Amino acid sequence: MNSNNTFSKETLAVHAGTIPDPTYQGTVSPIFPSSAYDYEDVPETFYPRYFNTPNQKSIIEKLAVLESAEDGLIFSSGMAAITTALFAFLRTGDHCIVPFDIYGGTQHAIVHEFARFQIGYTMVDMRNPAEVAAAIRPETKVIYLETPSNPTLAICDIQTIATIARDNHIHTIIDNTFASPVNQNPILLGIDVVTHSGTKYIGGHSDLSCGAVLGSKKVISQIFNSAIHFGGNLDAQACWLIERSLKTIFLRVRQQNANALAIARFLEKNTLVKKTYYPGLESHVGYDIARKQMPGGFGGMVAFEPALPAASFIENLNLIKRAISLGGVESTITSPIKTSHAKMDAETCARIGVTADLVRLSVGIEAEGDLIKDIQQALVAASK
Ligand SMILES: *Cc1c(COP(=O)(O)O)cnc(C)c1O
To answer: Which of 223, 320, 343, 349 has fewest C-beta within 10 Å?
Structure first.
């Protein structure tokens, strides 16, 4: 299906990129697992690591529609997408500006890999655009963003930072994993490159690993030139599963948005809870910016600090499972200080609100009442 038509994104999430099946007239895309294709008298030679096999292109067409991008590349993990995008724009002597509260894996990659290539970086509080502007040097080539942040869901102003970057001829890359393409489309706000850990909301069922980069044809061809060297391509079967997952992304994420908002409101009023972080609460410092730049909803992630030992609270949950990762149809919970932020220094943890008792809830699509009941009974049990 041609993506530049008048259908809405909900319709195109189902139909865009579907590969026709002229042999059997089936409804869904066939899977093309071949890694060997003819090279004579063909318009294009297909190969998995050229990121151009039918099932790879099929999901990119869908994802590009969802993110309002012209083109994209699909990877085998979020980190493959992120590191390939960063290294496509950065070389020895360059400098990059990143938020201090980014995803732990990305922070680790920057600290350990950039040093080996003498690429400089400044970690800033991206909620303050003046701090971003002040960190710009002549050799700054990339401003990297992540909003809402992990785990305390801090919000930075995408459009303001994109404008600062454009005025200074600096590329912008944003990790849009937490928001998902349903809630936030950074390209419409002036961002050059969107990355996703598709392992989360894009896959949506906690059963596959993938990553994506999306942007204009120009930036994607630049990233492609590095991607074919680094590899990181995804196989046809996983691509096909993602295509299937994306058909329900609006249904899933909207249910997760609604559940998360209800849970956040419940937690905020609960005397057994000290602190609740959710960008859809009027009390959240980033609420006004979130409302403006997340027209689809505030997402399915909620962080909070029970007024009792978190380990005991988690232990007492029945329905909500303890698990790393996020974005699945099932609700899961983690203790960031033991998982994603285990390697972060105490000072930074304190600065972003990662305490021993902070928990991060990834809200699924279950009935809102069942989730609230489970949280309530676990809070009561842990307080005894
Ligand atoms: C999980 C995650 C990543 C890394 O993705 P992988 O698929 O695990 O490589 C990057 N950014 C964010 C925000 C994530 O949650």
So the answer is: 343
Is the pLDDT at 14 greater than 70? The verdict is: yes
Among 277, 318, 268, CA closest to 299: 277
Residue nearest to atom 4 of ligand 1 (CA): 78
Walk across the sheet containing 301-306 and list its strands: 273-277, 301-306, 359-362, 332-334, 321-322
Q: Report the Cα 29 to chain-centroid distance in Å.
A: 26
| Separation of alpha carbons 234 and 223, rounded Å | 16
Mean pLDDT of 95-114: 93
Q: Return the bridge partners of 221, or none.
A: none
Buried b (16+ CB within 10 A) or exposed e, 168-202: eebbbbbbbbbbbbbbbbbbebbbbbbbbbbbbbb
Please name the residue that has the structure tokens 């099929």: 58
Q: Which among 126, 177, 196, 205 is the best mutation to test ligand 1's pocket, defined by most ligand atoms within 8 Å of the CB?
A: 177
Looking at the chain, the number of H-run helices and the number of E-run strands are 15, 12
The helix/strand/coil state of 16 is coil
| Angle subtended at Cα 198 by Cα 195 and Cα 200, rounded to the nearest 5 degrees | 115
Can 200 be counted among the known catalytic residues? yes
Ligand 1 center to 195 CA (angstroms): 10
Amino acid at 69: A
- Summarize pLDDT for 196-224 with one digit per residue, the tens: 999 999 999 999 999 999 999 999 999 99
Segment 225-266, tens digit of pLDDT: 999 999 999 999 999 999 999 999 999 999 999 999 999 999
| Short-list 109, 191, 97, 175, CA closest to 139 | 97
Q: What percent of the chain has pLDDT over 70?
A: 99
Neighbours of 45 (CB within 10 A): 11
Site residues for ligand 1, CB cut-off 6 Å: 77-79, 103, 105-106, 150, 175, 177-178, 197, 199-200, 209, 211
